[in-house]
Amino acid sequence: MSRYPSFKNSIWRRLSFLVVIFTLVYFPLSAQATEKVGYENWDEVVATAKGGTVNWFMWGGADNINQYVTDYIGKELQKRHDISLNRIGINDTAEAVNIVLGEKQAGIDDNGSVDLIWINGGNFRTMKQGNLLFCGYHGLLPNNQFVNWQDPSIANDFGLSVDECEVPWNRAQFAFAYDSARTQSPPKSIPQLIGWVKENPGAFTYPAATDFNGSVFIRHVFYHAAGGPEALLGDFDQDKFDAVAPKAWAILNEMKPYLWREGTTYPNAIASLAQLFANREVALYFDYDPAIFGINVENGIFPETTRSYGLDDGTIGNTNYVAIPYNSPNKAAAMVAANFILSAAAQYEKAKPDVWGAAPAIDVGRLTKEEKSRFTELPRHPAVIDPAALSQKSLPELHPDWISAIEKGWQENVAK
């Protein structure tokens, strides 16, 4: 079927189609975007940003990430552009979203408190649906050339089109970890895990659905119950949910008596699960950011024999982003910060295992030969699975409405 079926039936409509193509070729989307956001070119953005401040609200629960943002990104922005970066640590991205929402309700449309947010998923949906985002500026950013917007996992945030309202920061994918000195053959698929839990009572648990990583684990079981994620992609479908959910709850309830503390309680955060693994109370750990395995080894929290792996039936991955609120008073400075985040230098620094070890959000293949070699030559901590190998079996994230329904269903049918 044609993408433009209404253009089929008349010569006039075909000519109209040619006019549209001509317009896009000679007046590219980047030019249209610059008009939309009020800047003629990148030089004007940089000049306006000089001497400005960026209040970046971001999850502050990881010391290494905080240090990277403050000591590297902050100092580079100051040195290169005379921009002051003010990192504001929060426990939940929703805190920043609620600030912007509250300001809109109060009529504060030009002088908001938030200039940049580390964001994705449901929080992005909330801001996009509420017209709380500054959009249309990708064409201005020189480093946007390094982003592969043809990749659906980049162009869509939990099933929602980015629409030039976010800039990718890094990619993450769920992975498991185990102590190779204690566990010889960890389970390599969800069906294997279900059997392994029953064969090793008390050696496994997962955080409650209120924790991000706990919710992701539950979604893996939901995918298994559905026969794969394909049937669940797109907008939420109550009939599909009602068909799959009882199977998923049955699996999790069947596992429950064999969990740590016989499933009478669940860790309330991923940090609690990390502590259980460190204390050898459980044999398996998992995280949406596999770099944490190596960091915890280096910090003496996990044993040196920690190793990590993906699942044969795949693990969920996503891209996370930075976004500029519609009422940021420092949009030019925020755009300069977003552009620097996309640079080969910033992405390389972030990828260093002793800094963060995060997978790059840019397409390394688009860099110069010298820049590409720097990435390929990066050492990898032995506790951290090769991101390239892990990504070969990456599963898509669900639309936020699916996630909300699954989390609520778990609370009602498993936790209780």
From TrEMBL:
InterPro entries: SBP, YnjB. Coiled coil: none annotated. It holds the Pfam family SBP_bac_8. Keywords: Signal. It comes from the Bacteria. SUPFAM superfamilies: Periplasmic binding protein-like II (SSF53850). Residues 1-33 form the signal peptide. This is ABC transporter substrate-binding protein.
